[in-house]
Design brief:
The structure holds two protein chains of two kinds. Chain A is mainly alpha-helical. Chain A is built from 16 helices and no strands. In chain B, helix 17 packs parallel to helix 20. The chains are: A mainly alpha, B alpha+beta.
């Protein structure tokens, strides 16, 4: 097969797999949503509605139709970029997602950067000093980050750093003083405060972001340091590392220029997965920190039997996973020449 | 190294002080932490949840409103006077002069008439309240009319007690909207519903400036309000679902009020002088409906046994810690005719004897549905323990409230631990819900609490309907006393507790009135020193 034919085949296969995955996701979410023991009509009309109001609303929501028909209609709308209207907020789901997702994106990105910047070097350090005190310290810190419930970490963090010491901002993304005076342009508060030229607002947003980001980053750093440590120990035991040392290369060069460079690809996969996990919306963290993100949106929508919202948000997360996977696939051959595009 | 640590701590400390100063809300702004999950729509013809009721109560005026100092009475609001004809059918309201909407347009009787007709024609959930007036989408145009710009005439399908009519007109669906503004946003005959879900077209003390679903609601003072400018410039409701987070926010002073704190969290707030706790008796009761489809629960001796197998005082003292008190009547305290003292108490021997007489001395097994979230599972566990002493095995089925209500409305339950509020301050609110069941068929149009428990009692129906129509207040009160006794003797409910709402306010917050109803909180007179 020619190079062009190979390229074409890989693109077609990739697109087909993307569509099949998305369709599978929609089917699964739709039918699980319908199997929930909560009446979506009651979520709209409330407990007091008369039978006539109930029946009319049920028909308006299309719930009187057979499930396959309901799904086909939903699919048709999705293909026209219409995720429906949230029964709870009364807004198009797309608009809701545009409002809630930036909060998660901002928190997840900062947490990911913090987690990677701390976790990966810590993992390398632990591998280089295996079974000595730096290794023990990294492993114990990681174990706490991994096993302490996020809810507990969040509350304790708030009590110590917000209530007692007053070092960080409290729950929410901004103090009330700034909340309604900063124009929302991107939905990313750090960006919006800077665009509005409010340095005070930026500092305030940062002070609110710090604690939830650290709580999430701790978990991410724990995961990445464990992965990095295991991968690095394998590499450091390789013969080419022994050869490099025998050539008299410095420890720094051996570790970072020879061993680390060879764990970039599996580490990239782990990092992408960790980022995708954060982008799903950390439900508990968002609840404790009153952070209006996608995790909180999905949870509340589920409890309210707000199926269009649940479906829309799940589709968004599915898309993000797929896009991250695609991005990582694209990056592999650029990091490792042995991998063909 | 230590120098670096000290410097860092110093800088962070300075930053903390600066931030905490910046975080204090202005004295004309009240910040409220509340769980806002129940806000679904802000259209008065559609919204009927706790928080939306509270928002509408402060953003819209009505013909009459509940007297904040005596909520079982009404006072003039948009109307400054009214008359009820002797036939009990015709009511005439005179609109107070000089009232305008925010854009300066005068508020007229036609706005009031259009608003009331709109509720009936849209036929959304709250329309059931006006169904009691005999108004239907087909006849309401002829029955609700502005005879002059200042005069509104209401005709009912049948005579009703004037007190009942006025209480119904003081509820949130009776809010008066700016007819012209709403009509300009009408799409496909929706009477502006799609627009008003998220907008504001009222004339109350506050405007609804912002609603970000599941995030925040901002009320801004309405300078056009006829009653004068509120003391606060704005009220910000922040959605904070987690009560522990609410406690931290109010402790730190980043919010001025916290709605949903547990007794332990309230107790832990210190110094105590920095906070005030409201203790407002609400018309919300915890009760257990007993489905009459279950043959055991249809036996009055079993129902009496169950009532004697609950440790009401122990639950109130040990679990509810002042947030609920024992109350076992049909009408909550605050409604005329409410019982002032408990009538049942824990008596295991009596429960066993009654079960034996009913033929269940070998034991009885029941399922109890209970919603998650303190204190309901804890109450259910206490009931399970005392029922076990009486020989009753109680299986607890815990799920989300919305799942429980789905079962309740489908009559698929046996026993539920449920809490509910009445809709208005008149004995008919409870009577109509718990006692009236004229059609027990599965496809009945009225699926009230009596229907859901499958309880039909002709005497209770007769007393409820008579109470609705009686024009003489004293005779009416007597009818409701008789009805309450009938319900306590015959009906399949175990009334147990009445809510005492505890809201935490920072000490500088003055003038807040919560009122007995789920939607009666008033922010007009709130100030911060």
């Amino acid at each position: 097969m020619s190079a062009h034919g190979h390229w074409l085949k890989s693109r077609v296969t990739g697109s087909a797999s993307l569509i099949a995955t998305l369709l599978g996701l929609l089917v699964l979410t739709f039918f699980i949503g319908r199997a929930l023991p909560v009446d979506p009509v009651l979520a709209v009309v409330g407990e007091h509605a008369s039978e006539a109001v109930y029946e009319r609303t049920r028909m308006e929501m299309g719930l009187d139709q057979p499930l396959p028909v309901q799904f086909a209609r939903y699919l048709g709308r999705v293909l026209h970029a219409d995720l429906g209207t949230s029964v709870v907020s009364g807004q198009p789901v797309l608009r809701d997602l545009a409002s809630f997702f930036p909060a998660t994106l901002e928190l997840a990105t900062v947490a990911m950067l913090m987690g990677a910047l701390v976790g990966i070097p810590a993992g390398v350090l632990a591998a280089v000093h295996r079974n000595r005190w730096p290794d023990v310290l990294v492993r114990i810190t990681g174990l706490v980050g991994y096993s302490a419930p996020v809810f507990w970490l969040g509350i304790v963090g708030l009590v110590v750093f917000y209530v007692t010491l007053g070092w960080v901002g409290g729950p929410g993304r901004l103090d009330t003083l700034y909340q309604y005076s900063i124009e929302e342009r991107t939905g990313l508060v750090l960006m919006d405060t800077l665009l509005a030229g409010s340095w005070d607002g930026f500092v305030n947003a940062l002070s609110h972001l710090l604690l939830p980001a650290v709580v999430l980053a701790w978990h991410t750093a724990a995961y990445l340091s464990r992965m990095t440590r295991a991968l690095m120990i394998d590499e450091l035991n390789s013969e080419y590392i022994l050869a490099a040392r025998m050539k008299g290369l410095s420890d720094w060069r051996v570790v970072w220029r020879h061993a680390f460079i060879n764990i970039r690809v599996p580490l990239l996969t782990s990092s992408a997965l960790a980022y995708a996990y954060l982008l799903e919306g950390a439900v508990v963290t968002e609840t404790v920190f009153a952070w209006p993100g996608i995790g909180m949106y999905i949870t509340q929508s589920l409890f309210s039997a707000d199926l269009p919202a649940v479906l829309g948000a799940t589709t968004l997360i599915g898309l993000l996973f797929l896009m991250l996977n695609r991005f990582v696939d694209w990056l592999y051959p650029r990091l490792d020449a042995r991998i063909k595009p | 190294m230590w120098k670096l640590v000290r410097t860092t701590r110093y800088l962070l400390g300075v930053a903390g002080v600066l931030l905490s100063v910046a975080s204090m809300a202005a004295s004309d702004t009240l910040v409220v932490a509340k769980n806002l999950e129940d806000v679904l729509s802000l259209d008065p013809a559609e919204a009927y949840e706790n928080t939306t009721g509270e928002i509408l109560n402060n953003a819209y005026s009505r013909l009459v409103s509940r007297d904040p100092n005596k909520p079982s009475q009404v006072i003039g609001d948009v109307a400054d006077r009214w008359t009820a004809a002797a036939d009990g059918v015709t009511f005439t309201f005179h609109i107070r002069g000089g009232q305008t909407f925010a854009d300066g347009r005068p508020l007229t009787a036609e706005d009031a008439a259009w608003s009331l007709r709109r509720v009936v024609k849209l036929n959304k959930t709250p329309s059931f309240l006006f169904g009691q007036f005999g108004w239907t989408p087909a006849n309401v145009d002829g029955l609700v009319r502005a005879t002059t710009p200042e005069t509104l005439e209401l005709k009912l399908g049948a005579a009703l007690a004037p007190g009942l009519v006025l209480q119904l007109l003081a509820t949130s669906p009776a809010s008066i909207v700016d007819a012209k503004a709403v009509q300009t946003h009408e799409r496909d005959g929706d009477l502006g519903n799609a627009w008003l879900k998220t907008a504001w077209a009222g004339s109350g003390p506050f405007s609804i400036a912002t609603w970000k679903a599941k995030n925040a609601i901002v009320l801004q003072s309405n300078h056009a309000y006829y009653g004068g400018k509120p003391l606060l410039e704005r009220v910000i409701f922040r959605h904070v679902a987690e009560s522990a987070t609410q406690a931290l926010l109010v402790a730190k002073g980043d919010v001025d009020m916290a709605y949903n704190l547990d007794p332990d969290q309230i107790k832990a707030l210190s110094p105590a002088a920095a906070f005030n706790i409201t203790n407002t008796r609400k018309l919300t009761e915890i009760y257990l409906p007993l489905n009459q489809k279950n043959p055991a629960l249809a036996d009055p001796r079993v129902r009496a046994a169950l009532r004697s197998a609950i440790d009401y005082q122990g639950i109130a003292g040990n679990l509810l810690a002042g947030q609920w008190t024992v109350h076992q009547g049909l009408y909550g305290q605050g409604i005329p005719g409410a019982l002032s003292k408990p009538i049942y108490h824990l008596d295991i021997a009596k429960a066993k004897q009654l079960l034996k007489e009913a033929g269940y001395d070998k034991g009885l097994t029941l399922n109890l549905d209970v919603e998650g979230g303190s204190p309901y599972p804890e109450i259910a566990q206490s009931i399970q323990a005392t029922f076990a002493q009486a020989g009753i095995t109680l299986n607890l089925l815990q799920s989300d409230r919305r799942q429980v209500v789905t079962k309740y409305r489908a009559r698929e339950h046996e026993v539920i631990l449920w809490h509910a509020s009445v809709d208005y301050n008149d004995p008919n609110a409870a009577a109509n819900d718990y006692a009236l069941n004229e059609n027990n068929a599965d496809d009945a149009s009225l699926k009230n609490r009596a229907w859901r428990s499958g309880w039909v009692d002709s005497e209770a129906n007769k007393l409820t309907l008579a109470g609705q129509r009686e024009q003489d207040p004293q005779k009416r009160a007597d009818l409701y006393t008789q009805l309450q006794q009938r319900v306590l003797d015959q009906a399949p409910y175990i009334f147990a507790f009445q809510q005492v709402e505890q809201i935490v306010l920072r000490a500088d917050v003055k003038g807040f009135q919560s009122g007995p109803n789920f939607d009666s909180a008033v922010y007009t007179h709130v100030s911060k020193d």
